[in-house]
Structure formats: C-alpha cells, structure tokens
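ENTRY TYPE: paired fold submission
RECORD: A
CONTENT: sequence, then structure tokens
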Amino acid sequence: VQLQASGGGMVQPGESLRLSCAASRRIPSTAARGWYRQGPGKQREFVASIAPNGETRYADSVKGRFTISRNIANKMNYLLMNNLKPEDTAVYYCRASISASLEYWGQGTLVTVSS
C-alpha cells in the first residue's frame, strides 16, 4: 500500500487547509488512520488519529482546530485544519496502521503558516 498526502501549502495565520491522504488500494476497515507532523528542528509528533470504530484523538495543541475524517469507500482520509498558527508549520505525514507490526506512511506534505 502506498499513501499519498496532499493539500499542503502556504497560508496566513487564521486561515484553513484540508490535507488529503489517498491509499493506492483499499485499506482494511480495521486499520487506524492518522496524521503526524515534523516541524523545523523538531521530532515527528502525533497530530490526530481515527480508529476503526470512528473514535478520534487529537494532540492537545490542535484540539478544537483540527478535524480528522475518513472515507473508507474511496480509501481517503482527511485532516481539516482551521485557525492555523505559525507553530503549525511542519511537514505533515499520513499513516495507516494495519496491525501492531504493519503500518504505512505517506511521503509528507508541507504546511507553512506565515504572515
């Protein structure tokens, strides 16, 4: 399975972006999907995830601003990012966790928030 992340770009503080993650083939409905990010000079960190049962989790820094969703039928998942802040600047990666020992990562899409 290959994951393709897209939708990044440069925006001003307060604006929104929607990231998309497309899978090259259908991912089992039992897979968890997630987003991570790596800012300049920082380690990769968790942003959001959606479990097979639809339960979502968010990093404290993005709660109330970001929303993760998925469309199992078309193998997509999304990250809607509202009220973006300069500290959200990072390369965003999507992840699919099939099992404890099998996961896939997308190549990353750059989000830059700057005035």
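RECORD: B
CONTENT: sequence, then structure tokens
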Amino acid sequence: VQLQASGGGLVQTGGSLRISCAVSGRPLSGWFLGWFRQFPGKEREFVGSIRWSDGSTSYGDSVEGRFTISRDKIKPTVYLQMNDLKPEDTAQYYCAARHFSRSSYDVWGQGTLVTVSS
C-alpha cells in the first residue's frame, strides 16, 4: 500500500478544511486507514481511523465531534474533514495504514501541514 496526503494549508480559527489521502497498491479489504498529527517536538497523536470494508470510524478525544473521516472506494481516497478548527490543531497531518492482523500502523504517507491562525 502507498499513501499520498494532500490538501493542507492555512485556515482561520473556526474555519474548515478537508485533507485527502490517495491510496494505491493493493485491494484494501482488511485494512484500516488512519490519520495522525504531530506537533513540533512531540510524538504523533492519533486523530482517527476508518475500516475500509464497512466505513466504521473511531476518533481521538481531542477531535471527536469536530473531525470526520470518510472514504471513497472508487478513487480510492480517504478524507479528513476538519471543522471548527482551533490554533491547537496546527500540526503536520499524516495518513497511515495497517492490516487488521497487525496491531500498529506500519505504512505511512508523507505529511501535509495544517496551520490554523488565531
């Protein structure tokens, strides 16, 4: 599996942004696609994930209710819709993938920077 994230940029506090992760390489049945973010000098933080087969999602506490993950099976692409953005959401955002048989994400795309101005 290969991942290509895009769509980051500058947005004002309270605004919205959607970032994308194009997926290629193999059929995705049995895979989870996740979004993580990393703040300067800190470890990556789990944002949320989606199970490719049925679209079920889970989210980290800090984004629950504001962020939504979806996928397009045709393209295939995973999206992270971010609403009500706050300056503390400023980070490098990464998409990642793991097969259901693995306990951790082991395929990573390059990051895309999201900056929220106050």
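NOTES ON RECORD B: The chain has a mean pLDDT of 95. The chain has no helices and eleven strands.
STATUS: closed
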